[in-house]
Design brief:
Length: about 400
């Protein structure tokens, strides 16, 4: 079609001949949006291979924008292949659907991300897939619960809300020795606190699958929902990719662009969140109403030594940790008093999720969340803090004024 086409202007606007010159380059990659992808001829359409990223068939199966983000997340995680899903939870459920069938069993740590447990209790149970919970702080409990029906083991370091740090090396070794696939929910570590596919630093031990809620630190804005599934084994990747395709999971180009834009600053942000969270966790540990502060980098926090070993603090370094900590208020303070503390906070806003610029706080009902023993946790009401990017002195002042208001002096 030429510019002087005799076709109607509406047709010309759809089938426009102009192509911008090639060679445009900018720091931020272009955003490619598509459901339909065009082919030059029928032969090309028939021959197009969608499995290995050598081309494009349909927007759902990948665009230059999603391929680019997948490659960068694979690099962040130290994996070889990556798939994107519309949320962290969708990434979790895709792994489960791809790898489990009726009659199989999946094992989860007792402190797993709550909706992962809910998926096992509801949908997986309906489909004849059973689950068992293991004690995250007792690797032998995991070993004892693996049976010949176990097809998948979920691991999480640190655990959700209570932030116990497991012996991930021992857990991964047990799964490998027993021939069971282990999938790590790596949202907390974010590919920065430790290397999920190379836990010992010598290439000899790693998880099989790493799932990451890109919603958190990779997005960094509190404004995108996305998840990733990273692997090193090509066959395992292909198995999950087929399920991912058949389930019709894809992500929007603008969301992928938002994550691509935030990714270069992830290490700087992670470090800033980490430094501020440790300072505030130490501050909270000194407050009278507080029975226990849970943060893996704090000596005495459950699994602290495993965190030291895995996250680079064993040899005198600072180590890395996410900007999260939880506080258990002494049982002498009732739920109402703790709720009043949360309500009195001004900079820490009430809201789920984490990883964005704004500090957040959520009170949880711990007894309803756990089945295995929690003797390592104080009794009382638990509150989780996610530390954002505000000045840490302002955040501490906010905690001080809310403590005074809710608990006095
Ligand atoms: C937030 C989170 C998820 C789920 O991510 P969404 O994108 O909100 O679905 C999964 N695992 C962990 C540990 C999380 O913190």
């Amino acid at each position: 079609m030429s510019r002087t086409s005799s076709r109607h202007i509406t047709t010309q606007l759809v089938h426009h001949a102009y192509e911008p010159p090639a060679g445009f380059e900018a720091p931020q990659p272009a955003v490619h949006k598509a459901s339909t992808v065009l082919f030059p001829d029928v032969a090309a359409m028939r021959a197009r291979e969608w499995k290995d990223k050598t081309g494009y068939t349909y927007g759902l199966h990948g665009t230059p924008t999603t391929y680019r983000l997948e490659e960068r997340i694979a690099t962040l995680e130290g994996g070889a292949q990556c798939l994107l899903a519309p949320s962290g939870l969708a990434a979790i459920s895709t792994v489960a659907l791809a790898l489990l069938k009726s009659g199989d069993e999946v094992l989860l740590p007792d402190n797993a991300y709550g909706p992962n447990k809910a998926l096992a209790e509801a949908e997986l149970a309906h489909w004849g897939i059973t689950h068992r919970l293991f004690d995250p702080l007792d690797a032998q409990d995991l070993a004892a619960k693996i049976s010949d029906r176990t097809r998948l083991v979920w691991l999480e370091a640190a655990g959700s809300v209570t932030l116990e740090f497991p012996d991930l090396i021992a857990q991964t070794r047990i799964c490998r020795d027993r021939g069971v696939i282990c999938a790590l929910d790596n949202t907390w570590g974010a590919g920065l606190a430790f290397a999920p596919f190379d836990l010992l630093g010598d290439g000899s031990l790693g998880v099989d699958v790493s799932v990451h809620a890109l919603t958190k630190y990779p997005s960094g804005g509190g404004d995108v929902l996305m998840g990733s599934i990273t692997t090193r084994d090509q066959q395992l990747h292909l198995k999950i990719k087929l399920a991912h395709m058949r389930l019709g999971l894809g992500v929007g180009a603008n969301d992928a662009e938002a994550v691509l834009r935030a990714l270069p600053s992830i290490a700087l942000r992670y470090r800033a969140h980490d430094v501020a969270a440790r300072e505030l966790a130490r501050f909270m540990a000194k407050q009278a109403p507080v029975a226990q502060v849970l943060h893996p980098a704090l000596p005495g926090s459950p699994g602290h030594q495993h965190w030291q070993q895995l996250c680079g603090a064993a040899h005198g370094g600072e180590g890395g940790a996410a900007g999260l900590f939880s506080v258990i208020f002494d049982a002498r303070h009732g739920q109402e008093q703790v709720d009043a503390f949360c309500d009195a906070l001004q900079l820490f806003r009430l809201g789920y999720s984490w990883g964005g610029p704004m500090s957040l706080v959520v009170p949880y009902d711990l007894p309803s969340m756990r089945e295995c023993g929690t003797a390592h946790l104080a009794t009382g009401t638990i509150v989780r803090f996610c530390v954002g990017l505000e000045d840490v002195r302002d955040l501490q002042a906010d905690l001080e004024q809310a403590l005074a208001k809710a608990f006095g002096g």
